[in-house]
Every structure is written in structure tokens, then in C-alpha cells.
Specification:
- By secondary structure, the chain is of the alpha/beta class.
- It contains 11 helices and 13 strands.
- Strands 2, 3, 4, 5, 6 and 7 form a 6-stranded mixed sheet that branches. It has a 5-stranded mixed sheet with strand order 11-10-9-13-12.
- Helix 3 (56-69) runs antiparallel to helix 4 (76-89) and helix 6 runs antiparallel to helix 7 (174-181).
- The chain starts with 11 loop residues before the first helix and ends in a 6-residue tail after the last strand.
- Bound molecules: zinc ion.
- Zinc ion (ZN) binds at residues 253, 260, 262-263, 265, 284, 286-287, 289.
């Protein structure tokens, strides 16, 4: 059977684990197939209880200053540029007041994280238009491409819980904020979906399509954007994306009124209600394409 249209694809085991087993069996002598905690990467000194920055760029810069002060990053200016480029490509706001700005830059160490809370909230071009009250800034080493996915999945899982967000937003001081964050467990999601990456994958498809008809002068810029996106998406996801692109000319389809626009077939009620309004990536059980929520509902 064609693996791309097999309803059983992707299988849980083939989707995440092989790559994970190969690359991340041991890190710092720890087996991260077990649970590790966010606090393995975060110290209380990397937490800002009340950000002074009044906009996205200043808040990000404030967090970079914290990392620079503790010698966790070297080239602040370069990293700031990379973070802003990434924001301009596709906002890292997850919705519900949380954003995870990130860049893959040589840091000297494996990963540098800073967390800031903003009482007033910051404009972040979030999918739900809500202001951001919690920023988790992540700079990670290019030699560890999969680490971010692991971290991101764990973060997204916790930050989706309203009770958890509430405690982080309402933390009275730095200690309380840190203790809340320290509860975050990092592990890969077990569902057949990819958390909070739908808009990014859709963007990748848009740019790939644009590349086909772009004048030569534009190709370099477009390729740079493609590279920026590809380096933070999971390898298995990209392999499958490329196969779909090659075969159908597109890999990501929107879901409108419960119908996959890639094959015009109704999804199960359960799946279509899960997708609606989310930024997660699913796989169509009928055509095997990636399916994401439509940006705007047709009226
Ligand atoms: Zn379909």
C-alpha cells in the first residue's frame, strides 16, 4: 500500500521515535527518553518577573541581556536579528498570552533559555490577537537540531493548561514564577499530531510555491526563509512534506467545515473539532496530506 495514503500513516512509532532514539539517547549522560524537567535548562537568574520592555523587540532584548549577563550567549546583536527575522516570518506566539521566540544560533553551550513575564502584556501578532504575558525565549545550538522540538512539545503541553498559565501569569515574585516553570516536564507528545506548528508548515508551503514562479533576484531571500523554517521542523515531518510536495504539488491542506480541502472528503467529527481553531498539524486519514485549520471560516 502507498505509504502516503495509508490511513495508518504516520504510525506513532515511525513518526517520532526512530529519530529521537538515534540522536538523543544520551545527552549529558542523561537518557532523555525519560522525563527531564524544564528547570534542567533554567535557573532562577534566567527569569524576569516583570519585563520593562513595552514592545516585543525591547522585551526580547531585555531577556537577551539576562542571558548575556550570565554568559549564556555571546553575540547578542546577531541573535536579536535572528529572533526578529523569525518573528517577522511567523509569530512565535502560541495564543492565550504565551510566546516562544527562538533562534538556532551557535551559543557555545547547547541551549540558552530566559523567561519573562509581562503584567501589562505585549503585542505579539498572536493568532488569537491576545497580548502576550509570558515569553519563553530559546536559543539553541545548531548541532542539536532536535532538542528544540523536544523542548517545544513539553512547553506547549504545559502552557496550554489554563490553570498552569494562570499561575505563571499571576506569580507574585521571581521565585514563584520559577517554581511554577520548574514543573514543566519535557517529553515528546504521543499523539499523531504536531503541536503548534501548523502556521509554520503552511508558510513553508507558501514560500516553496512562490519559489517556483519567483524571479531569480528573489530566490535567495526565499531560500533563506525556507532554510530558517526547515531547520526548526522535525526531520520526519519534512521528509514527508517533501514527498507530498513532489507528488501532489502541495502537502498542506486546510480544513473547511469539516472537509479536507486536499481530497474533499469529510473528516471524522472528532478530528475536525480537534483541528478547528488550533495551530496543530494533523494528517488526513483519507489522502494522507497534512491538514490544518483554515485561517478564516467561510461565511
Ligand atoms: Zn484529505
Amino acid at each position: 500500500m502507498d505509504p502516503l495514503i495509508s490511513p495508518r500513516f504516520p504510525q506513532k512509532s515511525s513518526f517520532y521515535q526512530p529519530r529521537f532514539m538515534v540522536n538523543y539517547k544520551k545527552m549529558d549522560g542523561k537518557d532523555i527518553l525519560g522525563i527531564t524537567y524544564f528547570s534542567d535548562y533554567l535557573k532562577p537568574t534566567q527569569v524576569v518577573h516583570d519585563l520593562k520592555g513595552k514592545d516585543k523587540v525591547h522585551a526580547i532584548e531585555e531577556l537577551l541581556d539576562v542571558l548575556a549577563k550570565h554568559k549564556l550567549i555571546k553575540n547578542k546583536k546577531l541573535i536579536l536579528t535572528r529572533l526578529i527575522d523569525r518573528e517577522n516570518l511567523d509569530s512565535t506566539a502560541l495564543g492565550e498570552g504565551v510566546a516562544v521566540p527562538h533562534a538556532r544560533v551557535e551559543t557555545g553551550g547547547e541551549i540558552a533559555i530566559a523567561v519573562g513575564r509581562s503584567e501589562k502584556g505585549l503585542e505579539f501578532d498572536a493568532p488569537d490577537k491576545k497580548k502576550v504575558h509570558l515569553i519563553v525565549l530559546v536559543v539553541w545550538n545548531p548541532s542539536l537540531p532536535g532538542l528544540f522540538n523536544h523542548l517545544f512539545a513539553g512547553l506547549a503541553h504545559f502552557l496550554r493548561r489554563a490553570d498552569f498559565r494562570q499561575r505563571a501569569f499571576e506569580a507574585k515574585d521571581k521565585g514563584e514564577l520559577f517554581n511554577t516553570l520548574a514543573e514543566i516536564e519535557l517529553r515528546l507528545p504521543h499523539e499523531d499530531k504536531i503541536i503548534s506548528r501548523a502556521s509554520l508548515l503552511k508558510k513553508l508551503q507558501e514560500i516553496e510555491m512562490k519559489k517556483g514562479r519567483a524571479p531569480k533576484a528573489q530566490l535567495k531571500t526565499l531560500q533563506a526563509q525556507v532554510n530558517l523554517i526547515r531547520e526548526e521542523l522535525d526531520h520526519a515531518l519534512l521528509t514527508r512534506f517533501d514527498k507530498l510536495m513532489k507528488r501532489y504539488g502541495f502537502a498542506v491542506a486546510e480544513v473547511e467545515d469539516g472537509v479536507c480541502q486536499g481530497c474533499n472528503i469529510n473528516l471524522s467529527t472528532q478530528m475536525s473539532s480537534a483541528i478547528e481553531g488550533s495551530n496543530d498539524i494533523y494528517v488526513c486519514e483519507n489522502c494522507g496530506k497534512y491538514i490544518v485549520a483554515a485561517k478564516k471560516k467561510k461565511k
